[in-house]
Amino acid sequence: MIKTLSIAALALIVAGAGCSRRVDVEKVPVGTDIQVTRQDGGVVQGTLAARDDTTVKVTVGPATRSVPRDQIADVQVVADTPAALPPAAKFREFTLPAGTVLHVRLDSALGSDSSRAGDPIEATLTSAVVIDGTEVIPQGSTVRGEVGAVDPGGKVEGRASMAIRFTSIAVAGGDERYPIATQASWLAPSTKRKDAAKIGIPAAGGAIIGGIIGGKKGAAIGAAIGGGGGTAVVLTSRGPQVRLDRGASLSLPLEQDVDVRIPITKV
Prior knowledge:
Elements: H1 7-17, E1 33-38, E2 42-51, E3 55-60, E4 63-68, E5 72-77, E6 91-96, E7 101-106, E8 110-111, E9 120-125, E10 129-131, E11 134-137, E12 142-151, E13 161-170, E14 177-187, H2 192-235, E15 243-244, E16 249-253, E17 258-263
Parallel strand pairs: 2-6
Antiparallel strand pairs: 1-2, 1-5, 2-3, 3-4, 6-17, 7-9, 7-16, 8-15, 9-12, 10-11, 12-13, 13-14
């Protein structure tokens, strides 16, 4: 039942429109549940949020959709029972607002020492996206993108890093494909303390060996040799890498709103 509209006022609106419940949107109070059908067959059902001379705004779930007045074919009030769909209706329209999180599973392994910028990547949606009780993106849909940047890290300094981005989602069981924008990045942990240990410990060992060979002078030479050996270890080995196994779970927040259309036969 519509909370912000009295029963008497609603009855007058519906009675004036006839059994179809089609109404003049100008007579419907803001806050009323309505169903707007576009001339192209799109159906937007939600709460009337606002209207002006050119646009009718309807809140659907967490987002608000704007429908140009010159594109409207039908407006109906939604009361206790669903409004009848006009013949022109072909699909329902929803918006996934920015910040909506896509939970996915990687379809292949990635690594900062094995992947390259531009490599294609795919992931599978593990949880359906639902708005107002309607499944708008089903589980099993495919998210596609690429490796955006990758760096295995330097041998002297620099930490390994990797960034990926996803640019589209293909709906499971259908032909629909939507552009999206979401990304994730990782930075390997620092190894500065470990590197210092690699240099320091061999230096002490070298000093001991040098002392055995030739006193203070030998100790000095030994320290140089030992320190150099430790440095060589650091110079020839990289730090920890960023690696994601196949099947790794990711949570990807959308950076922009995504408009989707659900065929009427699937709702």
